[in-house]
Write a structure and sequence with these properties.
This protein is mostly beta strands. Helices cover about 0% and strands about 55% of the residues.
């Protein structure tokens, strides 16, 4: 069974930094595409960063140059380093992995973690 556990959120002042972590059990990020999403109150869920199994990375324009997605295959972990945070980055952040089992493929999600950017 695939499970994703996130950590690292919290309250930070504008201009500050946070690093979100996502640890996978039941699979590994090295063989599955993964991503970070966020959802702000009253808004749709937004894909902000993704990384393929081969390591190809893409970012949403809203975070490009400020956020960095990475992974540590030995730790079955993925990370989202967030710098130069803005109030509009306030949202619930979730990690995602697209996992294929012999029975089929599914998206799996972390529990979500709150990031609040405020002075």
């Amino acid at each position: 069974q695939v499970q994703l556990t996130e950590s690292g959120g919290g309250l930070v002042q504008p201009g500050g930094s946070l690093r979100l972590s996502c640890v996978a059990s039941g699979t590994t990020f090295s063989i599955n595409p993964s991503a970070w999403y966020r959802q702000a109150p009253g808004k749709q869920r937004e894909l902000i960063a993704s990384i393929t199994a081969s390591g190809r990375i893409n970012y949403a324009d809203s975070v490009k140059g400020r956020f960095t997605i990475s992974r540590d295959d030995a730790k079955s972990a993925a990370y989202l380093q967030m710098n130069s945070l803005k109030p509009e980055d306030t949202a619930v952040y979730q990690c995602n992995i697209y996992y294929c089992a012999p029975t089929g493929c599914s998206d799996y999600w972390g529990q979500g973690i709150q990031v609040t950017v405020s002075s």
